[in-house]
Design brief:
heterodimer; A: mainly alpha; Non-ribosomal Peptide Synthetase Peptidyl Carrier Protein, Chain A; B: 410 residues; Peroxisomal Thiolase, Chain A, domain 1; 2 domains; 10-stranded mixed β-sheet; globular
């Protein structure tokens, strides 16, 4: 799965969980500061990513996922 | 310090309609919102009758809103948006804006859904929104967050009297000077096989499957229990001073509340209606009304064998001969029983009856139950007289809670 595919899948999840338009979910965006994804929504995003991409994202990693790029890169590297 | 409280906004989403106007229209037309639950989810239950929301929240709210909220919270949010807009979206200091939204059951459906997920997929898949969705103060919190209310956000819980108690609580916030505006009322969204089976186990529900729209029949000789319903009904209460200063339309004047408890049984009403009478008399006193001022009563009347007659007797005893000029209605005959939302739906019906001077009829009342000696409106709506009139709205709940609200015409 390419980075573009992961980004598109992640954007769909963020849209579903937090109501953010999928096109706003771009690599440089910060989940908290730019996309207004709160800590509870972030847990939901992580759970949905684990299901969708077949990865495991431990809590210790979640705190490093500040931007969309962080998440896309982690998922691409670990799936 | 005690200030006059007025009603400046109404919002509802009920089995009768997705807003106040359609709900009121159905009440006047005695058009039932009760249906057979034909979905496979409800198969094999002893009772498969309920009054589901006329407009499903998923038709109104965004997908992510649905996802984050229990059904009771979704319904409350929809009603609060209508009520707030109806009040003219008033400019108010957030520290002077309060919320009191009650529920009888809370987020039971969300709790059960997450328990299924826990069993089937393990703890890592339990939603982080589980606690916010199941907590009984969740609907109040959702409405409070939506409006930015900082005067206080509250959740009185008294089973099927909760929605009325929330209105009384909200009015006290204004009377005592804690707030200028309070959005208050009740919500419920807990129709589920387990809740149906639980109420059925108490023998509290009608099982008239052959004719669901005739199942809820308050004061009728052949009533056999209530019909579970869902929905939310909220009002905007405001200090008269604040409402007049901004030129708000005023539906009615909040008169007062009467609170009491039966001290009798966890679920059975006290047969003499002593707690009911105590609450009615206290409401009259709090509202500075006498029985001669009462020209309408919205009865709790759920269509259970025990409750309706005890209430009718209490009304006759408290009002005496004045009950002859106080036509009675029972909205549960068409709306079903909204549990935590019932008291505030009854309040909205009472407020609209005073505003439009018309009382909706009770449906399905074919043969008056023995011992009922009050003037119940049947068939077509009944006009109320001109001049100064008042109405009272009764709400009672499992646990023996008695809550009576009084309103006066504006």
């Amino acid at each position: 799965m390419s980075q573009e595919d992961v980004l598109a899948g992640l954007a769909a999840i963020v849209n579903e969980v937090a109501g953010i338009p999928a096109e706003s979910v771009q690599m440089e965006k910060s989940f908290v500061d730019d996309l207004d994804v709160d800590s509870l929504s972030m847990v939901e995003v992580v759970m949905a990513c684990e299901d969708k991409f077949g990865v495991t994202i431990p809590d210790t990693e979640v705190k490093n996922l500040n931007t969309v790029a962080d998440a896309v890169n982690y998922i691409t590297a670990n799936k | 310090m005690s200030r006059t409280v007025v009603v400046t906004g109404l919002g509802a989403t009920t089995p009768l309609g997705g807003d106040v106007a359609s709900t009121w229209e159905s009440l006047l037309a005695a058009r039932s919102g009760v249906r057979l639950l034909h979905e496979p989810f409800y198969a094999n239950l002893p009772v498969r009758i309920a009054a589901t929301a006329a407009v499903d929240p998923s038709e109104v709210l965004e997908k992510h809103e649905i996802r984050r909220m229990d059904r009771s919270q979704q319904l409350a949010l929809i009603a609060s948006r209508e009520a707030w807009a109806d009040a003219g979206a008033p400019e108010v200091d957030p520290e002077r804006l309060g919320v009191a939204v009650a529920t009888g059951v809370g987020g039971a459906i969300s709790l059960m859904e997450q328990y299924d997920i826990l069993k089937e997929r393990g703890p890592s898949r339990v939603s982080p929104m589980t606690v916010p969705m199941l907590m009984p103060n969740g609907p109040a919190a959702v409405v409070g967050l939506e409006l930015g209310a900082m005067a206080g956000v509250h959740t009185p819980v008294s089973a099927c009297a909760s929605g009325a108690e929330a209105i009384g609580y909200g009015a006290e916030m204004i009377r005592t000077g804690r707030a200028d505006i309070v959005v208050c009322g009740g919500t419920e969204g807990c129709i589920h096989p387990l809740t149906l089976a639980s109420f059925a186990a108490m023998r509290a529900l009608s099982s008239r499957h052959e004719d669901p729209t005739a199942a809820s029949r308050p004061f009728d000789a052949n009533r056999d229990g209530f019909v579970m319903a869902e929905g939310a009904a909220l009002v905007v209460l405001e200090s008269e001073e604040h409402a007049k200063a901004r030129g708000a339309k005023i539906y009615a004047i909040y008169g007062g509340q009467g609170l009491a408890a039966d001290a009798h049984h966890i679920a059975q009403p006290e047969p003499e209606g002593r707690g009911v009478m105590l609450a009615m008399n206290r409401a009259l006193k709090d509202a500075d009304l006498s029985t001669s001022d009462i020209f309408h009563i919205n009865a709790h009347a759920t269509s259970t064998p025990a409750g309706d007659v005890a209430e009718a007797k209490a009304i006759r005893t408290v009002l005496g001969a004045d009950a002859d000029h106080a036509p009675v209605t029972a909205v549960k005959s068409v709306a079903g029983h909204l549990l935590g939302g019932a008291g505030s739906l009854a309040a909205i019906a009472s407020i609209l009856a005073l505003k439009h001077r018309i009382v909706p009829p009770v449906a399905n009342l074919d043969n008056l139950a023995e011992g009922v000696d009050i003037d119940i409106v049947t068939g077509t709506p009944r006009a109320l007289p001109a001049g100064d009139i008042a109405a009272i709205s009764n709400s009672f709940g499992f646990g023996g809670h008695d809550v009576v609200l009084a309103f006066r015409n504006a």
